[in-house]
């Protein structure tokens, strides 16, 4: 309810992504409001990462436009938005310590240098990895590395946080604990979040709204508002009811993929 009074900050107009002659994302139109947590849900290979790469400015769209606060990305004078990106894999530089990896992100931002140390200490402590500040990434577990990559995205106080299935490679216990932390952090920072996932339960637990995509090339099948208050409990029966409802709705547009999804829920 609250978000409906907030301004629209991230808008896609007739957005399409192709690789040569192969279309990954068909025509997408959506509008995301300031502070919203929007999940992008779709079957494997439908074009979710392609879409996120275009929203983040990592890749130019093949058709259409992305507007951030009314300003089009990819125009010569456009100002880059303050944006943190969490990739599916951690993408940490193995020849740099945790702290040095985080400093690289800070160096690319406008954060004043005299605040770097405090910021790094604070974010590592929030994510419970303060003890690894001077560790090499290869000495960390998968979950610890993913926490570092989340820290790297949050360090610059992003107005936008884009996440591409950041928990999909983690064991369920670690993923649960990170989901809880993410919910708290996103609420505290009031950032606008776009979170790609193929897990229906994860989307229902985390999001205010889900853009449900079709099989590729992706189109929006449904813009689904989550009818649940916060805080939420991952195992709550009401979450199970919403998951069941969405699972029913995506039977046709996802085809066989829905069976895989039901198994992973
Ligand atoms: N760099 C690329 N060059 C050519 N084709 C690509 C490239 N990246 C993605 N594709 C194709 O575009 C389609 C969408 O891929 P994308 O990675 O965006 O889907 P996804 O929904 O994120 O998949 P997953 O859930 O498995 O991560 C796929 O058919 C993929 O093979």
UniProtKB/TrEMBL annotation:
Protein known as: NitT/TauT family transport system ATP-binding protein
Matching Pfam families: ABC_tran (PF00005)
SUPFAM superfamilies in the record: P-loop containing nucleoside triphosphate hydrolases
PROSITE patterns linked to this entry: ABC_TRANSPORTER_1 (PS00211), ABC_TRANSPORTER_2 (PS50893)
Recorded family membership: Belongs to the ABC transporter superfamily.
GO MF: ATP binding; ATP hydrolysis activity
Domain ABC transporter: 10-240
Keywords linked to the UniProt accession: ATP-binding, Nucleotide-binding, Plasmid, Transport
């Amino acid at each position: 309810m609250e978000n409906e009074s907030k301004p629209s900050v991230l808008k896609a107009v007739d957005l399409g992504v192709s690789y040569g002659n192969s279309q990954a994302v068909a025509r997408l139109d959506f509008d995301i409001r300031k502070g919203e947590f929007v999940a992008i849900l779709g079957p494997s290979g439908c074009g979710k990462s392609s879409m996120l790469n275009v929203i983040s400015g990592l890749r130019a769209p093949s058709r259409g436009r992305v507007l951030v606060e009314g300003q089009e990305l990819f125009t010569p004078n456009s100002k880059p938005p303050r944006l943190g990106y969490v990739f599916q894999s951690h993408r940490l530089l193995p020849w740099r310590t945790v702290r040095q990896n985080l400093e690289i992100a800070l160096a690319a931002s406008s954060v004043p240098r005299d605040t770097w140390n405090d910021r790094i200490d604070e974010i590592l402590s929030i994510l419970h990895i303060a003890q690894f500040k001077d560790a090499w990434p290869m000495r960390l577990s998968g979950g610890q590395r993913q926490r570092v990559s989340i820290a790297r995205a949050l360090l610059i106080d992003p107005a936008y946080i884009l996440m591409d299935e950041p928990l999909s490679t983690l064991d369920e216990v670690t993923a649960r604990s990170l989901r809880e932390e993410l919910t708290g952090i996103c609420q505290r920072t009031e950032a606008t979040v776009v979170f790609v996932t193929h897990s229906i339960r994860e989307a229902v637990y985390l999001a205010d709204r889900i853009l449900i995509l079709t099989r590729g090339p992706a189109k929006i099948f449904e813009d689904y508002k989550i009818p649940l208050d916060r805080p939420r409990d991952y195992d709550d029966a009401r979450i199970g009811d919403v998951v069941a409802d969405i699972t029913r709705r995506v039977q046709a547009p996802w085809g066989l993929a829905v069976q895989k999804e039901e198994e992973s829920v």
